[in-house]
User: Fold this.
Amino acid sequence: MGAAGTDTDGAADARAEVLDVVDEDDQVVDRVPRGEVYARGLLHRCVFVLARDPGDRVFVHRRTATKLIFPSRYDMFVGGVVGAGESYDDAALREAEEELGVSGLPRPTPLFRFRFLYRGEGKGGWWSAVYEVRCALPVRPQLSEVAWHDFVPEEEIDARLGSWDWVPDGLEAYRRLKAFRAARGVSP
Assistant:
């Protein structure tokens, strides 16, 4: 996932996609093409969707080397930017279906009642909402976006946190999810 949705074969189109620019309180202050948002490091919105199969394994993938941000890194989420005027909920469903290469998914469920502001490695910062969806359909990720993928047990993700090169925003979302569950005594 990472903060960028489709941004390889359709790079020119992706850079032209208009995003809501938001302030520190996640209020829309402007609408600007994605390429300009990235170039200027403007705050925008993003969704992270943890996709699980019927066996409760998590979809993990390695991004292609041609991605605009975080190329060739692993991610345990699918997702991407929220388009101008689009809700977080609608973006979560759209991005999950696009990145998994399926249609007809159930609406993703928010995992937090709050969003968090990610500021770190990458192109600026983004308000982030975290979701989960069950995918019983055969996945067909876009070859232009995904170099490798598999559904893996969450224990395997945890075992690889220190050895694989993960996208930093997804890693932050995953750590927040683990802390949220631990505080409530909830397991995956």
Notes: The radius of gyration is 15 Å. The longest strand covers residues 125-134.
